[in-house]
């Protein structure tokens, strides 16, 4: 009997220790429009190819914000709107999909509802799934949506991921043929000749600090730059030789 009581006491101590190690937090969904301006401005500047799909207030020791982009990336911010990193910055490994192409965000899984252009990854064609399997061994489709590109018209964009690596965005045309891989890059890393053509052509516009690098099926490279003038926003696709392809 003494042995049983002793064993129960040990288990109680162990369970108490485990519960202290776990992060306790409350999460409440909020309207995206209620986010601090600093957060929406940060996303607009550094994730210009994405939009905020969902937002939550996280209460742990401090109040923080967690947002989910339509690319399935999750970003964390403090109560004043300063960027903290991915969701693991405030929740450990409980949430989070990695930052897409080059921005190093990662973490555990967090489920999100469907949005206007989303499609189920289960509905992706065998051609798309076979391409992913053949070219990205071990990767799986995380998110998919229908979009339009000035160069290719209607496309299917698929975010794929594998543990320990940043997600990759792949784009397929209406025939489910691969057309390009997109990666987010700093404008400062784009050839100056490309930047000069944009600034000289769109003199009244301001360029956002981040852009996308497109690696096409034929291995050629293009850049997708985001510019704005007051409430007017444009995306300019331009070849690496500084020839403008199209604008959206």
Task: Give a verbal description of the structure.
- The protein has 248 residues and is an alpha+beta fold.
- The protein has two domains: 2-91, Inhibitor of vertebrate lysozyme, Ivy; 117-248, Nuclear Transport Factor 2, Chain: A.
- Helix content is 22%, strand content 38%.
- Strands 6, 7, 8, 9, 10, 11, 12, 13, 14 and 15 form a ten-stranded antiparallel beta sheet that branches. It has a five-stranded antiparallel beta sheet with strand order 1-2-3-4-5.
- Strand 13 (221-229) and strand 14 (232-239) form a beta hairpin.
- The radius of gyration is 22 Å and the shape is globular.
Quick one: how many beta strands? 15
Shape: globular
Order of helices and strands: HEHEEEEHEHEEEEHEEEEE
Backbone CA Rg: 22 Å
The biggest sheet, with number of strands, parallel, antiparallel or mixed sense and barrel status, is: 10 strands, antiparallel
Instruction: Report the total helices.
Output: 5
- Report the portion of residues in β strands: 35-45%
- CATH topology annotation of the largest domain: Nuclear Transport Factor 2, Chain: A
CATH architecture of the largest domain: Roll
CATH class annotation of the largest domain: Alpha Beta
- Report the helical percentage: 10-25%
Which ranges are low-confidence, i.e. pLDDT below 50, for 5 or more consecutive residues? 1-21, 96-113
Task: Tell me the number of structural domains.
Answer: 2
Global mean pLDDT: 84
Distance between the termini: 77 Å
Protein structure class: alpha+beta
């Amino acid at each position: 009997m003494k042995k049983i009581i002793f064993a129960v006491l040990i288990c109680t101590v162990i369970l108490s220790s485990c519960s202290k190690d776990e992060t306790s937090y409350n999460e409440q969904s909020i309207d995206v429009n209620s986010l601090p301006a600093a957060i929406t401005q940060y996303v607009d500047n550094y994730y210009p190819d994405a939009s905020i799909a969902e937002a939550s207030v996280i209460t742990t020791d401090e109040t923080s914000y967690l947002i989910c982009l339509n690319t399935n990336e999750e970003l964390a911010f403090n109560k004043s709107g300063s960027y903290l990193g991915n969701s693991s910055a405030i929740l450990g490994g409980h949430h989070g999909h990695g930052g897409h192409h080059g921005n190093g965000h990662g973490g555990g899984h967090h489920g999100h509802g469907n949005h206007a252009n989303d499609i189920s990854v289960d509905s992706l064609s065998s051609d798309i799934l076979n391409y992913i399997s053949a070219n990205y061994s071990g990767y799986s489709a995380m998110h998919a949506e229908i979009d339009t590109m000035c160069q290719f018209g209607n496309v299917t964009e698929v975010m794929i991921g594998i543990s320990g690596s940043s997600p990759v965005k792949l784009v397929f045309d209406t025939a489910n043929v691969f057309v390009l891989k997109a990666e987010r890059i700093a404008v400062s890393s784009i050839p100056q000749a490309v930047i000069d053509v944009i600034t000289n052509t769109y003199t009244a516009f301001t360029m956002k600090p981040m852009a996308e690098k497109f690696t096409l099926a034929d291995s050629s490279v293009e850049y997708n730059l985001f510019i704005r003038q007051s409430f007017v926003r444009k995306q300019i696709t331009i070849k690496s030789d500084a020839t403008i392809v199209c604008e959206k």
